[in-house]
Write a structure and sequence with these properties.
The protein is α+β, with helices and mostly antiparallel strands. It is 34% helix and 31% strand. It has a single domain (8-132), classed as Small Protein B, Chain: A. It has helices at 4-7, 19-22, 37-44, 92-105, 134-157; strands at 11-15, 23-33, 54-58, 61-65, 86-89, 108-116, 122-131. Strands 1-6-7-2-5-4-3 form a seven-stranded antiparallel beta sheet.
């Protein structure tokens, strides 16, 4: 029997591909995000960027800062602000866990993906992560290239 959550088709609107290189990912969460109508329509075009965005706790709520969702061109005066803080919809226990990890352990909350689930709802995949040093990044690159070479050698041998 397959897990329904993993089979669901997801349309990725924005992806932070550099996050997995710059940070050591500890735990991943799925969060809803409070958006306006023009933001949803703009996200569906797939031109949003979350490369330099982050999430932080403020007044007991999680907020997504510095995520760029371009203006929706067909909406005239009712358009949204492109880099406004957006509220992340999480359970109180999850917010407390993320907040405590950021305060105590020096971790950060990084968005990995913005996507639409099978019901058409916009979701943000956020991760509790620890920043990597330059030597750690080099080590990760070496490891990745070695596994790639190892797989290639195994394919060539049979």
């Amino acid at each position: 029997m397959s897990d329904k959550k993993n089979d669901a088709p997801r349309k990725v609107a924005a992806e932070n591909r550099r996050a997995r290189f710059d940070y050591a990912i500890e735990e991943v969460f799925e969060a809803g995000v409070a958006l306006t109508g023009t933001e949803i329509k703009s996200l569906r075009t797939g031109k949003a960027t979350i490369g330099e965005s982050y999430a932080a706790q403020k007044n007991g709520e999680m907020w997504l800062y510095n995520a760029y969702i371009p203006e929706y061109l067909e909406a005239n005066r009712f358009n949204h602000e492109t880099r406004r803080p957006r509220k992340l919809l999480l359970h109180k226990r999850q917010i407390a866990k993320l907040g405590n990890a950021v305060e105590r352990e020096g971790m950060t909350v990084v968005p990995l993906k913005v996507y639409f689930n099978d019901r058409g709802r916009a979701k943000v995949e956020i991760a509790l992560a620890k920043g990597r040093k330059t030597h750690d990044k080099r080590e990760a690159l070496k490891e990745r290239s070695w596994t790639r070479d190892k797989a290639r050698l195994m394919r060539e041998r049979g």
